[in-house]
Every structure is written in structure tokens, then in C-alpha cells.
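Let's sit down with a protein and look at its sequence and fold side by side. We need material for that, and I hope you will provide a protein of your own picking. Once you have written the record down, we can walk along the chain together.

***
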Amino acid sequence: MPDRLDLRPVLHAAMTLVAADGLRGLSLRPLAEQLGQTVSALTHRFGLKDELLNALIEAAIAQDGAFLDRWLARIQALEVRDGATMAEIADAVLCDLAGPEALRTRFYCELLQGVVSRPELAPAVAAWSARRLDFWRAATASLGRAELDEVLHAFSIGDATYSLALHDVAAYRWLRRLNLRRLCCGLIARDNTQDLRQHQVFREALGELLEDPGRPTPPPLTEWQAKAAPHISALIIAEGADAVTHRAIAARAGLANSTLAYHFPRQEDLLRAGAADMVARSRQATAAPARESDFQLTAIQSARATFALALIAARLPGLKAVAADLRGRRGENYVGVLEREMGERVFDVVATQALSLTGMGRMMLDAVMDPAVSDAGFKLSERMRAAALAER
């Protein structure tokens, strides 16, 4: 096993490739070209692709651990005892993860998305996830709030891809802070008037991305493209964006590869069509949450779809507005669902957004942390709601 110092330039080159093209882009030849080496020299030093990938993940875990340890030292030096300060610190950590540490965060998210189709990655990604959970456990230990470590860990995953796509949008960062404050200080605010006003203002500001006249707008899907789009979104949900190729979609839809390539010349065109299909499904669920339909996504499919879509948006700036729309909609229909269940409105949209993103993150983690359990995200959300009601 090469030492971590030797792996640093290789890891940086690998993460750069992943940021541009997903895990699909991480192969030996382009990696060797990035490093100015030959493939044979690279394999001689670091082994074959699978061996190298495991070594790269191990090196990334070590880098991530060092970053988290620096933050933990600051938290312990501050002797954090209150939820409001913890919320501000959590937001600062997430800002760093989406800013100066974005390449590594992207690598982690791509691996998390890819575990379903590449289960051999699960042990390494589980080790990385466990290291992050250890950080949140140590960071929140002095607050004495049960499961806050698991909650912040899951939220950090659920919001990570949006952070990567929308980190430079102030309205998005404000909405994230509102969610974190509820997670750390109590889901049910004694006086939520200010929170709701802030949410409305910055939710509308986030929506302005969709109306920006300077933003390039792709043409609407043709009738033929719209029929193929569900096959694309299904593959994105199942395996992630980098599984989307002309050959894979043609085989899935029973179409000629040449015909598909005529209607979708580039992979980006395929991804845009899949994104459009997922957005339409999400919007329908928001508009009519009580109606069951084959067109709607299950909660787990929705989690995987929106996670994948935001990852696509981080790669393709033209989809940033789509990610903003989905981020703004998180939890909005959940308000009505809980109101019908409970017979009264107890959880407002700020709380349900926090619940929704936390549940989404937990669902993404299920595939690596405990693949035998398919409803951990739901159970965590239920426990969060029960704890909030007990504190009311």
C-alpha cells in the first residue's frame, strides 16, 4: 500500500476527474495523463484500478479526518453548550465542505451514490461515513441532545449535493441555516413568525434563479424525447448520473442506439431529459401529495433522484436552477401530510424541510451503513418528531 504522502497528487487528480465526469470518468488512462505518467507506471506504483480506488478512498478518509479534527478542536476550545452556537458551527463546517473541500465532498457523494450499482465499494464508503459520524458525535457530546449526532450527520448528507450546486447562492445558505437552527434548538419553535418570514423571503429569492432572463434555457423536450425521459430518470435513480450512456438507455428502452443518439446527441442532453422527468414527478407530488400514481416516486426513489439530480447540477451549471427548485420544495408537501396525520399543524415548513433533508440523507446512508435496513430514514424522522412533541 503506498503511503498517503505519495497518494496526495494522485488523489487530487482522481477527484478532479470525478468532479468533471463522475466515477465513470475515473479510469487509469486519463488519470495517468493528468499525472504526466504512463498507465504501466501508474499500475506499477499503485496496482490495478480497484486496488488504486481503495487506496484513494483510504487517503480521502485520512484527509477528511484531518479536516474534521481541526474543526473538532475549535468546537472543544469554544466549549459549546447551546444549540444556537452548534447550529452556526454546523453551518460553517458545511460551508467548508462545499467550498475549499468541495473536490473531496464531491468524491464522497459520488461514491455514496454509486454504492447501489457497485456494492463492492460499500465497506470503504461505510468506513468514511462512520468517520464522519464520529465527528458529529464528538462535536455534539456536550449538548446532551439524544441523536443530534445522527441527525446532523444525516442532514449533512441530505444537503451535501445542494451545497455543492448552490454554495454561491446566499438565499440557499440562509435556508440551510434556518434548518440547522431547528435541528439544534428544537423542531417546534415557540414563536416561528420570524423563521417563517425569513423562509418565505429566501425561498422566493431561491426561486428567482428560475426566472433569471440571463440564464440559458434549454429547449423543451420533443414528444419523442419525453417518452424516453422516464427510462433515463429510472437509470439515474438506480445507478446515478454516470451510469447514463446512450448504450445503457437504448438497451433499457428497447431503442436503437443510433436513434437515441440522433435525439440526444450528447450525454448532457440525456441528463437534462432525465432531470426534467424527475422535476415533473417532484412537482406533481408537491401539488397533489395525497394522490397515488405510478408517475410519482416513492420516498426512497425521491431521495435518490434528488441526490443524483443535485450532483448533476454541481457538474452542469445549466441545471443549477433545477437544483434550486427542488431544494426549495423539500418538505413543502410534508407539512400537509403531517397535518392530516395529526389533525393539526404542529410542524411548519422550516421543520418539515429539516426533517425531509435529514430523512433523505439517512436513506442515502442506508445502502452503506446498514443495507439490510430499508426504513432507517423513516424511523429517524419518526423519532425526531416524537422527541419534538415530548419537548413541546
About this structure: The radius of gyration is 21 Å.
